[in-house]
Amino acid sequence: MKQRLLAPLILLAALASANPVLAAPPPVEAFFKDPTIVEAVLSPSGRKLAVRSTFGGPRVGLGVFDLNPGGKPMRTAQFNDGDISQAYWVNDDRLVFSVTDLSDGSGRPNGAPGLFAINPDGNQIRQLVRRMGRPFFTDGSRQDRLLDWNHRLLAVPRPQPNEVNEEVLLAEFTPDERHLETPLWLNTRTGRTRLTGVNAPPDTVGWVTDSRGELRVALTRRDGRRGALWRGPGRQDWQPLYESDLLNAPFGINAVDDAGRLYVTHTQRGSETVLSLYDFERHAPDPKPLVVTPGFDFNGRVLNDAAGTALGVRVTTDAETTVWQNAAMQALQKAADERMPGRVNSISCRRCGQADVVALVRSYSDREPGQLWLYQAQPPAGESVWRPVGRMRNAIEPSEMAQMDLHRIKARDGRDLPVWVTKNAEATGPLPAVVLVHGGPWVRGNAWGWHAYAQFLASRGYAVIEPEFRGSTGYGRDHFRAGFRQFGQAMQDDVADALRWAQEQKIASDKACIAGASYGGYSTLMGLIKDPELYRCGVAWVAVTDLDLYVAGSWWVRDDIPEWGRQFQLRDMVGDPEKDAALIAAHSPVKQAARIKAPVLLAFGEADLRVPLAHGERLRKAMREAGNEPAWVTYPGEGHGFAVLKNRVDFAERMEAFLAKYLGPTSP
Fold it and tell me: N or C: which end of the chain has fewer CB within 10 A?
């Protein structure tokens, strides 16, 4: 068993370190297949390590390594009709996990993932929540007291001294999934439930708990309004924190600690959000922030030890950074950074800062997807303080990967515009370029690290340009709101400005194509319409093509955009389907299809509910009528993104051939 689970991972990592020189770029599958190691989590005591991995098979299973002297690895759980996901330690002798099956595609109605509990050695497995659309688990699992599929895991309490917790907290969705019922405590060994003793405020759609699982914040939504209510320690009543429209909450909820301190994010001294404590006397965030990340919105959390004492803070600016307040943890971070320089070395620990600390370090960079190391300050006899667990993607050779950098440039109107560039560090002179536009659009596109699509394209010899156009989050409230009602306009100008800047800097040549998924696919099409001189071709997958269908919906086309989203958000963020009909038509690819002159590759999931296949079919018809037949592929069962490996590989190979045809042969 030991050779089956751990040894191959270490051996393959050692073999990879030989840095072989390859004449050809890595195969497509290397970039898009599932990781060898998906996740690793230390048990509450730090004496066991749970690993989600394929273990050389077709499905992601769960294994546990006993880190005690003489301990052996254990095969914990494996399913033939699903991959294990969301594994958590309840205590040192009990875990819970869910099972997700995407083998038929991401759009199949394979249902909610259910919930199971199991011992590390694979014994006493019990199904706690039913998987929607699946028969009951029959392989020795207890079935009495089984909860229905609409119960979701909300919290696993942090172990308390001299206590052995066996319970987890579940939230129950109403049948229409529009709000949550009051959560329940569930015993993972007996299946028994008990009430929390707390009543849910009306219209609750989300909860925030402290580390013990105590309900502290209820998030509400109704008729275009959102709100947050607070329940202090030792109280049963709920006190309002705020109520606002959907787009103008005065602050965001970050976390609650066990002492009853509420951490919030809010805008202060400019556009970027900061982290502060909430001042209950002033009924507002404390004006003195705890953490400020200039140039970026605060994105992170305070790290506490088992007693609830703050040890430091972990934030993501251009890359993830951890600032420790604890001297022992500072020393451990320094040791990890010296051992693995040039990488983000992200530490999770048990007995943090103590003499017998146990830590798991995920070490990664733009070229290395991730390598896991175990640190034991007091290791078993004969073992090293540092022990390799394995690499997360054995098929990726870091020496063959490209370098990723963040640049801050100026858009044509003077706005600060973050732009990511991924390219072979050894390449000289301008390269043919692919402008890769992120989806959303109201999300942050990237953080420094290894990213499959960018690295795949860079391995084929392209400079990959990824703009964080206005409307993207993470770079300040002003940057986000500057994208409102700017589909195909200033948002699109930012994409063009990023390419022109890269060409001026001799990063990109005059040979360029544009590509993206979802909103990125929309931007791809609008780029070909608005800036035809910049791009030789476009690749758009699961792309919004009919802007009117997107903002107004249709009785004849089923999608998963909620009515409240269309009524109270999209009208302000994109446009009103009636008042702004002319604006929408002018920036809808299906209405402007005759202006698309460049070659286009379109790909869609046939079961996509976010951007239904009708978007693709309508654009294909319009382009055909305009005399520009697009390259076309659809994937049965796939939704808003491709889950089946053969589909991911097939699409990437089509993209590779399509780009090579119009950008010319390249050399990585």
Answer: N
Dihedral sign computed on CA atoms, order 354, 89, 37, 49: positive
Cα 435 to Cα 310: distance, rounded to the nearest angstrom:
42
Q: Return d(Cα 201, Cα 182) in angstroms, integer.
A: 9
Q: How many domains does the chain have?
A: 2
Conformation bin of residue 540: beta by default, left when phi > 0, alpha when psi is -120 to 50: beta
Task: Please state at what angle helix 490-504 crosses helix 519-530, rounded to 10 degrees.
Answer: 70
As a whole number of angstroms, the longest Cα–Cα distance in the chain is: 75
Residue that the structure tokens 């022992």 belong to: 328
Q: What range does the domain containing 510 cover?
A: 402-663
Q: DSSP for 38-98?
A: EEEEE-TTSSEEEEEE-TTSSS-EEEEEE-STT--EEEEE--SS-EEEEEEEEETTEEEEE
12 in a structural domain: no
The residue out of 197, 212, 235 marking a domain boundary is: 197
> Final residue of a domain: which of 169, 197, 225?
197
The band of 7, judged by pLDDT with boundaries at 50, 70 and 90, is very low
Average pLDDT value over all residues in the chain: 92
C-alpha 443/C-alpha 456 separation (Å) is 22
What predicted TM-score, i.e. pTM, was given to this entire model?
0.93
CATH number (domain holding residue 152): 2.140.10.30
Q: Is the peptide bond before 25 cis (omega within 30 degrees of 0)?
A: no
29 domain-assigned: no
Mean pLDDT across 204-209: 95
| Domain annotation covers residue 211 | no
Q: Which residue has the tokens 């020393």?
A: 331
- Provide the pLDDT confidence category of residue 595 given band limits of 50, 70 and 90: very high
For the beta sheet containing 344-350, the strands, ordered from the edge strand earlier in sequence to the opposite edge, are: 344-350, 358-364, 371-376, 386-391
Which residue bears the tokens 């996990």?
97
CATH number of domain containing 530: 3.40.50.1820
Distance set, CA 406 to CA 319, 423, 511 (Å) = 10, 12, 22
Helix (H, G, I), strand (E, B) or coil at 218: strand
Can you give the pLDDT at residue 425?
87
* pLDDT digits 0-9 by tens, 135-178: 555 444 556 679 999 999 999 999 877 788 999 999 998 765 56
Q: What is the DSSP secondary structure assignment for residue 400, as one 8-state letter?
A: G
pLDDT score at 12: 29
Q: Is residue 126 part of a domain?
A: yes
Residue-by-residue DSSP string for 402-452: PEEEEEEEE-TTS-EEEEEEEE-TT--S-EEEEEEE-SSSSS----SS--H
